[in-house]
C-alpha cells in the first residue's frame, strides 16, 4: 500500500530512470572496460550479459518485490514481512554496506571532479605515459587535493538527497540519464574515428577462449552485481517509492538493458582509443584515469580544440554517472535513519555526510599519507572495496533472494514477478552465489 505521507516517484519513467541511474555509474565506465581488457574481451562481455540477465536480474526483482510490498527501508521491511525474526539483522547489513561503498565510491567520484576541473581550466599535463601516471599520482596522492575533491563530490550527493525523492533524485536522474547516453555515444563515435581504432572493436567482438579461467565467471558475476547495485538495499529502497500500478518485471528488465548497453558503449568509447594509441587493454583500474588522459592529450597535439572538448565531456560523463549512483547509496542510509531514528531528511543527511566524510577521508588518504596502513594486507580503500563487493554484497544478495523466494508468501511474489523469475529467484540465484562464494574461498 502506498502510504499518504510518504514521498513517491512521480511516474514509471521516473522510477526506471532512478534505478538505471543507480546502476549506471563508475562500475560501467571505470570498472567494466578494464575488466573486459583483463579477462578476455568479447568472451567476458558474453559471460557478463548471461550473468546480468539470468542471475542478477532475478535478485534485483527479489529486492524490488520486498521494497514494493513493504514500502519501507530494509530494516522496517523485515519487521513488517517477517515480524519477530532475525531477518531484521539484514536491515543492519544494508545500512553498513551502502555506507562503506558510498565512502570509497566518493573518493573515485572526487577524482572525476578533479580531472573535470583540471581539463576545464587548462590542458591535462599527460602527454606521455609517465606524465599521465604522475598526474594520477598527484590527483590521488596529494592529501589536501584528494580530501577537497572527495568532499565536493560527497557534498554534491548530499545536496541532491536533501531535496528529496521527487525534487532531488527524480529531477536529477531524469535529466542526467538521457544526457549520459548522448555523451557516451558521442565519445564512442569520436573514439572510432581514431586511426587503428578498429583493432579495439575487434577486441570487443571476438571471443578469446584461451583467456577463459575459472575466475572469469566469478568476476563477471561480481561485476554485474556491482553494476546493477544489488545486495545492499538500493533497489529495495527505490522500489519502496514506486507507483502501485508499476510493473516490477518491466522496470527491472529496462534497468538491466540500459545498464548493459551503457557498459558496452563505454567499452566502445574506451577500447578503440586504447588500441589506437597502441596501449595494453589490461591496464587495470588506472585505465580511465591514466590511459585516457594520456590518449586525449596526445590527440591534442594535432586537434587541440576537439580533444579538449572530448576530455571535458568524458570527465563530465564520469562525474554525472557517479552522482546518479552515489545518491542511491546515500538514500538507503537516509531512509533508514528517517524511519528508524525518526530524523528529518535534513538531519539524517547531515549525520550521514559527517560519518561518510570520516570513513571516506581515510579511504582518500590511503593513496597518500595513509598508504602504509594495511588491513589484512590491503590499503583502507582496497579493503573497503573488497570487503563490501566480495562479501557484504554477495551475502546481501543471497539473503534477499532467499527471503523473497522462500520466506515471503508465494502468491505475492509470483503474482508480481511471474513463474519464470520466481523459479530463478528460488533456485538459480542463491545456488549460483553459493557455488561462486565457495569456489572463491577455496581457490
Ligand atoms: N552500480 C553503481 C555503479 O555501477 C554503483 C552502485 C550504486 C552500487 N549503488 C550500489 C554498487 C549498490 C553496489 C551496491 O557504479
Description:
With 443 residues, this protein is mainly alpha-helical. 79% of the residues lie in helices and 1% in strands. The protein is built from 17 helices and 2 strands. It has a two-stranded antiparallel ribbon with strand order 1-2. The chain starts with 11 loop residues before the first helix and ends with a helix. It binds tryptophan. Residues 22-23, 25-28, 101, 226-227, 229, 232, 234, 325, 328-329, 393 line the site of tryptophan (TRP).
The number of helical runs is: 17
- Order of strands, main sheet, comes to 1-2
Kindly provide the radius of gyration, computed on alpha-carbon positions and rounded to a whole number of angstroms: 21 Å
* Global geometry: globular
Helicity, as a percent range: over 70%
Low-confidence stretches: none
Mean pLDDT: 93
Order of helices and strands: HHHHHHHHHHHHHHHEEHH
Terminal CA distance: 46 Å
Largest sheet entry: 2 strands, antiparallel
What structural class results from the helix and strand content? Answer: mainly alpha
The count of strands amounts to 2
Bound molecules: tryptophan
Q: What proportion of the residues form beta strands (DSSP E)?
A: under 5%
What's the short story on this structure?
By secondary structure, the protein is mostly helical. Helices cover 79% and strands 1% of the residues. The protein has 17 helices and 2 strands.
Relevant terms:
mainly alpha, two-stranded antiparallel sheet, 17 helices, binds tryptophan
